[in-house]
Sequence to fold (316 residues):
Amino acid sequence: MLELVVFSTLNGVLYGMLLFMLASGLTLIFSMMGVLNFAHASFYMLGAYFGFELARQFDFWVGLVAAPLIVGTAGALIERFGLRVVHRHGHVAELLFTFGLAFVIEELVQMVWGKLPVDYRVPQQLDFVAFNLFGTTYPAYKVFMLVIAIGMFLCLMLVLTRTRIGLIIQAALTHPQMTAMLGHNVPGVFMLVFGGGSALAALAGAIAGPALVTQPSMAALLGPILFVVVVLGGLGSLAGAFVASLLIGLVQTFAVAVNLSLADLPGMAQLSPAAGTLIGDLWRVTVAQVAPVIPYLLLVLVLILRPTGLMGNRET
Fold:
């Protein structure tokens, strides 16, 4: 039991920090620009594929540094010459633009790298066991992923709270019109935030690619959960996105590890409905089976009980 708790906690925190690396950029973009960027997870996928290609041509560390820079630059150009032009037609046009962009990126990835998963491997320098606990080994690469994610969080908070551009970004998050009236280049800040958010997503892809499966469907698998994190954490709140990411990571990890149903609870076996009926089948559904649905149930509850999210500071 203790082994289950320890390793589920480690994996939950790791998954939560990976979610935060993606959700932090999406939170900034969504909060500041009001854009539901459906292509955000596609930048995560591009980070994984560019990391793989650069690792194959040069070295893993080159890909880890260069992939986020390449994808971040592409994101800034997309905002400047795409979203900014579409913005004059309203948020529906922006939504459709990012929705179409996600499919374009997926098709381009399939054209270049094919439809099958690529062989993106953990670098030899990190391919060893970090520690052995309860007879179970924990890979060093997962510890590396956790360290990078925590370092990124600390750097992001430092930039936002201790630098001038960070203060301008925070002001634009809650009072974009007032920030523009004070003479700041809000469109330039938008481009910087969109590019920076894309780079953070690409960094998540570059480090997660070797540990997870790098394939064209990876964006579609992870994309929907990001919007749950943004809404659950609260619009305009990076701290909320951090808490929501960890919460979802831990809840899903522990839920997957719990293979129990109502029928397995003490004293419930005699109350179990007949097998083959709808109620009987639901009675035997395990927590692990409903684990993928839990974040979306949390989303529905938050929208009903607290639409601004756990730590949201604005309603629009």
